[in-house]
Amino acid sequence: MHKSNRLAKEKSPYLLQHQYNPVDWFPWGEAAFEKARAEDKPLFLSIGYSTCHWCHVMERESFEDERVADFLNEHFVSIKVDREERPDVDKIYMTSVQALSGQGGWPLSVFLTGDLKPFYGGTYFPPSDVHGRPGFLNLLHGLNNLWCNKRNEVTRSSGKLHQRLAELCEQAPVTGYPLNAGTLDKAAELFRQEYDPIDGGFGRAPKFPRPSQPAFLLRYGVRQNNEAAIKMVLHTCERMSRGGMYDQIGGGFARYSVDSKWLVPHFEKMLYDNAQLIHLYLDAYLVSGEERFVRTVRETLDYVRRDMTHPEGGFYSAEDADSEGKEGKFYCWTLRELKSLLQKAEVEVFIRHYGVTEKGNFIDHSDPDPLLQQNVLSVVDDQLSDEERKILQSAKAKVFAARGKRVRPHLDDKILVSWNGLMLGAVARTYGVLGATQDLEVAERNFEFLWHNFWDEDAGCLHHRWREGERDTVQLFQGYAYFLSGVIDLYEVTIDPVYLKVAIAVADAMIERFFDHEHGGFWQSDGGGADLILRMKEDYDGAEPSGNSVAMLSLQKLAAMCDRTDYIEVVEKCFVAFAERLDQLPQAVPLMLLALDSQLETPRRIVIHGDRTGNETQALIRAAQSVYQPNKVVLGIEGAVAGFVASLPGSKKSTEIAYLCTGQSCQEPTSNPAVVQQFLRS
């Protein structure tokens, strides 16, 4: 093993994975930039994340190769970036590579001038030339020759690319795109055309769950009484949870399916996917009443609590696809293994239920000597008797216990306030819908962990990453937006005024630091550092929702809770900034379409008066959370900041009552949970 390089001093698990490479890596920062300028060398920027399969492959093939390392060290200054720690850096250079090559992904490989402007880039490069793709070492030779002999050409092309991207970032929004119910109709029709009626989901393989897309369709279907749209979502949820992308033994979803049937996953598990999918499956349950969706929520939360939670309450980021250098080894089974583990009756039920065969359905391709006859477990036969279900549960317990003795995939144990905010909201809502106090305990512990470790009271700012007692210094809009959303969800299921106060503080800080008052929309970073050549706005609701979409939804709710017209003005400017995107490419912004739907309808407010810990008050909160009505807000009179709340005639009474309000108009107060439910359904 080589001696450690300077990445050994970093906290990112991804950077630490590269601490023994012979490449002379730098972390992102002025030391690398200064060395490149002083020695007149180009920068090689490699961006990835610790659970990225192809990042591992490129490390083994290239960054551990002495010849590659020697050439990099002599002719380039090499930088490693964890995209999850610095999504702002990743966004700039991913956009640049997409502009240069028409595609992106990780590992992201970009070559920069000394002033940080990209002049060449791509994703994974193999060690040798193959299928028209240059080998990495040959590429390095070619780029070094270009740098030494055609510098003017390099400088000119990098300058043009930077200018083009800067103009896109700074241009005023295009006007003339009216946003109305027709925008939602057009988007729903486009999603319908992408729908897979056989296996569910949208588009072709590989299939990502992308929860914001079915979330929009479900809301559209309920609002328009469109049974076809609702069925698309419920069918998709059913197929995903029956497939191999869902961990049938331990709970939780993998990142995506490599096929169209949700059968063979890319086995890494991400916190942000599971948080969004909990929200989606809760909504599917509320709309359909089907208990199978509850099981998926419970099993996924069990997984998060068991395997993804820090002892102090924070949630870890991800688990790898690989273990012992082989993709899926932790999750897959051969028929022989199962027969040696289970009794005869258990084997029969287990292999019928999960479709296990001698041949298997998955071959590991991550090693020259792949594992054979592997089975990814998916539900293929669910027609079991009560007795067979008992046998299946016994078999699953044995398989789970045996799996626990295997070498687990790598755990990325850094804690991000952004992804934690998503999961905080998911756990809080699960408590609100299902009522298990253990979920509330998990949510409140998580909030306390985040508030204590990430919020800087003196500076009024929210940090982004924490690991091993140390937090970073960067300010990222996504963290504010996601955390704000989670805190609002926690407030709505507890009506504890402490959480409302926190939400207001975070929202105000977010607007002050990141909002573009001239053109609308939120910048991804606060512009406080000299290490970014561009400030960009993210609007794409992909695997992760865009911070702008999440912030708009949160500010709409907070405005309804607090009578803050300034929050609505921010949201309206965001709609102006992204109107062209919403109108011309709604497929890119499904969560922002939810915000548009909310903007077109006056929210329903359930204002609850009474002891928030009392049984009667809790019953009213549960009633409000038990109905699928996305455009609602639940708030308490205790600690209220909304002007209209103080004027409610019941606010001085001691009884537990709920006011059911639309706009500034409220119905007679009620203590009957059924009346609350009816108000939300009407």
Task: Give your account of this protein's structure.
With 682 residues, the protein is α+β, with helices and mostly antiparallel strands. 50% of the residues lie in helices and 10% in strands. It has a five-stranded mixed beta sheet, with helices on both faces. The chain has a four-stranded mixed beta sheet with strand order 19-18-20-21, sandwiched between helices. 49% of the residues are buried. The mean pLDDT is 94.
Helix content: 40-55%
Structural class: alpha+beta
Low-confidence regions: none
Q: Number of DSSP strands? A: 21
Q: How many helices in DSSP terms?
A: 26
What's the number of domains? 3
Radius of gyration, CA atoms, in whole angstroms: 26 Å
* Average pLDDT, all residues: 94
The major pleated sheet works out as:
5 strands, mixed
Q: Any idea what the shape is?
A: globular
- Which sequence of strands runs across the widest sheet? 1-3-2-4-5
Query: Strand percentage, roughly?
Result: 5-15%
Alpha carbon gap, first and last residue: 67 Å
Q: What attributes characterize this protein structure?
A:
four-stranded mixed sheet, Glutaredoxin, 682 residues, 10% strand, 26 helices, 50% helix, alpha+beta
SSE order and pairing:
Elements (H helix, E strand, L loop, with lengths): L12 H5 L7 E3 L2 H10 L3 E6 L4 H11 L2 H10 L1 E6 L4 H15 L6 E5 L5 E5 L13 H14 L1 H20 L10 H14 L17 H12 L3 H16 L13 E2 L7 E2 L2 E2 H18 L2 H17 L10 E2 L2 E2 L2 E2 L7 H7 L2 H11 L31 H18 L7 E2 L2 E2 H18 L2 H18 E2 L4 E2 L2 E3 L2 E2 L5 H18 L2 H18 L32 H16 L2 H13 L1 H6 L5 H10 L4 E6 L5 H11 L6 E5 L6 H4 L10 E6 L2 E2 L6 H9 L1
Parallel strand pairs: 1-3, 2-3, 18-19
Antiparallel strand pairs: 2-4, 4-5, 6-7, 8-9, 9-12, 10-11, 13-16, 14-15, 16-17, 18-20, 20-21
Helix pairs in contact: 4-6, 8-9, 8-23, 9-10, 9-11, 9-23, 10-11, 11-12, 11-16, 14-15, 16-17, 16-18, 18-19, 18-20, 20-21, 20-23, 24-26
